């Protein structure tokens, strides 16, 4: 402890230690030389409220002088494919931040959000749903992470009309994809000190498909004996989620629904197949405050794309866009996740703290949170609250 | 037929889940395919309190003899009718629904009122409603209210 002067009589040693522990600053992060070089991030403003909220992120990053620069690309939901130059940019930068892309209903055109995930093999989608102080919801102590398999399941996109009036839709589940999502979920839980991983499934009905998913989860669970593993059927999961969400921690799901239920402590991860994951994530987001505030990201072996947590295809309505009242909180928190992913923890902390301060003060909140502010007003409040 | 008097809307299932937990009053009657129905009905049940308080009718089954006018035959859909004014124990409530379909409305009303009065009284409630009564005690209480 050389170099520190102790003012005689002002504080005992014990008092100093206590003060230091409670001072709010953790043991410092030691970077490698050159870690501060600016990182390129592909930015896709998207449709609807997308441009508004991505602009918000750009403004806050600038105010923080964060070591990121954005390469903006226009992609819209009505395009046939994601342009090749955009994919090239993401492959080069390895990281992308995007607003939502409007997904057409029916019509045989696949969602560009889904296309992007498949092209870049972003096989894990993660949504963190948690209570924000200052935002009262029906439930407290919610802290759920939903990890959803992103590439197969009901989202395989394989449908055909057998005869007029009869359509077959294929749900494809593979051991390969189920195993890697289970591994990701357990690894996430291990790295983030989460206590439980819950697999969400409907194996009582889809015995082979979801049965395969469960088998994979069980196998991976044996390699993490310190993490509790349990399973829950998706319909029960929905019910528990709306009545006792504090029981969940990390949930892992196949493509549709992601739910996980943690035991009594709020430390759960859920792992789910694709469709369940989608539904669970959205329900959890609704429980904890809405899609306007929940952050999320998609990650694969080589790339990561960050976007608002739930409902990527929901780009808001026209009125929201016209009056510029979209909620930037979700994307701001997702960009904080991105900063951590890029190993800029201090910038991530500052951004997150500023956003949480604005929410807890309650003065500047957009309509979906019960306030009357515009997007810009919230952004200015966040910038004003930056350390 | 009441064409034009019933508002029809479509909603994507993930958005629906989110809206449901934020403001269930937005919805009235929901119709959806099998898996979504399974999940949404349990979600509703969680919102109102317990699975046993929600009644469901499988309209595709020919149990009641004649299918109701509003549903086609063998559609394979599960409709959830959420009563705004009361909760009913699910099994007895299904009997009520059946009695109504058979046009025995007065008998159905008798049973429904008995259930509502029992729950409102609060003396006999099963574990899922927050009480300690056994099923037989709850049932006897309903019978007493008939």
Percent in strands of chain B: under 5%
Could you tell me the mean pLDDT of chain A?
Answer: 84
**Main β sheet profile of chain A:** 11 strands, mixed
Mean pLDDT of chain B: 64
Low-confidence stretches of chain A: 1-9, 256-267
**N-C termini distance of chain B:** 36 Å
Instruction: Report the structural category of chain B.
Output: mainly alpha
Kindly, what is the distance between the CA atoms of the first and last residues of chain A, rounded to a whole number of angstroms? 27 Å
| Helix and strand composition category of chain A | alpha/beta
- The percent of residues in helical segments of chain A reads 25-40%
As for the CATH topology of the largest domain in chain A, it is Isopropylmalate Dehydrogenase
- Return the CATH architecture of the largest domain in chain A: 3-Layer(aba) Sandwich
Strand order of the largest sheet of chain A: 2-1-3-13-12-4-5-11-10-8-9
**Morphology of chain B:** extended
Number of strands of chain B: 2
Tell me, what is the CATH class of the largest domain in chain A?
Alpha Beta
* Rg value of chain B: 17 Å
Nutshell version of this structure?
Chain A: InterPro entries: IsoPropMal-DH-like_dom. The complex is a heterodimer of chains A (387) and B (146). By secondary structure, chain A is α/β, with parallel strands linked by helices.
Topology:
The complex is a heterodimer of chains A (387) and B (146).
Chain A: H1 13-21, E1 39-44, H2 50-64, E2 68-72, H3 84-93, E3 95-98, H4 112-119, E4 124-130, E5 143-149, E6 153-163, E7 166-172, H5 175-191, E8 196-201, H6 209-221, E9 228-233, H7 234-243, E10 249-257, E11 268-273, H8 274-288, E12 295-299, E13 304-308, H9 318-322, H10 329-341, H11 345-361, H12 375-384
Helix pairs in contact in A: 2-10, 2-12, 5-6, 7-8, 10-11, 11-12
Chain B: H1 13-22, H2 34-48, E1 56-58, E2 78-80, H3 90-101, H4 105-121, H5 135-145
Antiparallel strand pairs in B: 1-2
Helix pairs in contact in B: 1-2, 3-4, 4-5
């Amino acid at each position: 402890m050389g170099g520190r002067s102790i003012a005689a009589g002002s504080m005992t040693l014990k008092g100093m230690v206590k003060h230091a522990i409670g001072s709010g600053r953790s043991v410092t992060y030691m970077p490698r030389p050159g870690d501060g070089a600016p990182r390129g991030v592909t930015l896709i403003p998207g449709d609807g409220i997308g441009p508004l909220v991505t602009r918000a992120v750009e403004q806050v990053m600038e105010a923080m002088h964060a070591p990121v620069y954005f390469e903006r690309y226009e992609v819209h939901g009505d395009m046939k494919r994601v342009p090749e130059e955009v994919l090239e940019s993401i492959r080069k930068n390895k990281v992308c931040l995007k607003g939502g892309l409007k997904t057409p209903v029916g019509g045989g055109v696949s969602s560009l959000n889904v296309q992007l995930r498949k092209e870049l093999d972003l096989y894990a989608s993660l949504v963190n749903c948690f209570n924000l102080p200052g935002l009262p919801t029906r439930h407290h102590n919610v802290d759920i992470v939903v990890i959803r398999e992103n590439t197969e399941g009901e989202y395989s996109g394989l449908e055909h009309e057998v005869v007029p009036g009869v359509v077959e839709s294929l749900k494809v589940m593979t051991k390969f994809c189920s195993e890697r999502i289970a591994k990701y979920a357990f690894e996430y839980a291990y790295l983030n000190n989460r206590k439980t991983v819950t697999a969400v499934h409907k194996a009582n009905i889809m015995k082979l498909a979801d049965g395969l998913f469960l088998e994979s989860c069980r196998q991976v669970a044996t390699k993490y004996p310190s993490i509790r593993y349990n399973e829950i059927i998706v319909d029960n999961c929905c019910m528990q989620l709306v009545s006792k969400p504090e029981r969940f921690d990390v949930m892992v799901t196949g493509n549709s629904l992601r739910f996980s239920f943690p035991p009594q402590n709020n430390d759960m991860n859920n792992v789910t197949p694709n469709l369940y994951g989608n539904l669970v994530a959205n329900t959890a987001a609704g429980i904890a405050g809405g899609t306007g505030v929940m952050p999320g990201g998609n990650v694969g072996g080589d790339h990561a794309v960050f976007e608002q947590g739930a409902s990527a295809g929901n780009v808001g309505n026209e009125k929201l866009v016209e009056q510029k009242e979209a909620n930037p909180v979700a994307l701001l928190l997702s960009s904080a996740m991105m900063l951590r992913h890029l190993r800029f923890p201090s910038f991530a902390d500052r951004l997150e703290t500023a956003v949480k301060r604005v929410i807890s003060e309650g003065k500047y909140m957009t309509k979906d949170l019960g306030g009357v502010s515009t997007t810009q007003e919230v952004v200015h409040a966040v910038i004003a609250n930056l350390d | 037929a009441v064409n034009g008097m019933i508002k029809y809307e479509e909603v994507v299932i993930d958005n629906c889940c989110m809206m449901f937990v934020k403001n269930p009053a937005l919805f009235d009657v929901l119709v959806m395919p099998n898996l979504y129905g399974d999940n949404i009905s349990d979600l509703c049940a969680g919102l109102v309190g317990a699975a046993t308080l929600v009644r469901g009718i499988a309209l595709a089954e020919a149990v009641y003899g004649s299918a109701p006018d509003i549903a086609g035959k063998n559609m394979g859909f599960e409709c959830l009718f959420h009563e705004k004014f009361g909760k009913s124990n699910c099994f007895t409530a299904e009997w009520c629904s059946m009695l109504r379909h058979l046009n025995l409305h007065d008998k159905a009303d008798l049973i429904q009122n008995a259930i509502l009065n029992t729950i409102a009284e609060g003396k006999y409630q099963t574990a899922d409603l927050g009480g300690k009564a056994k099923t037989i005690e709850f049932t006897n209480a309903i019978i007493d209210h008939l």
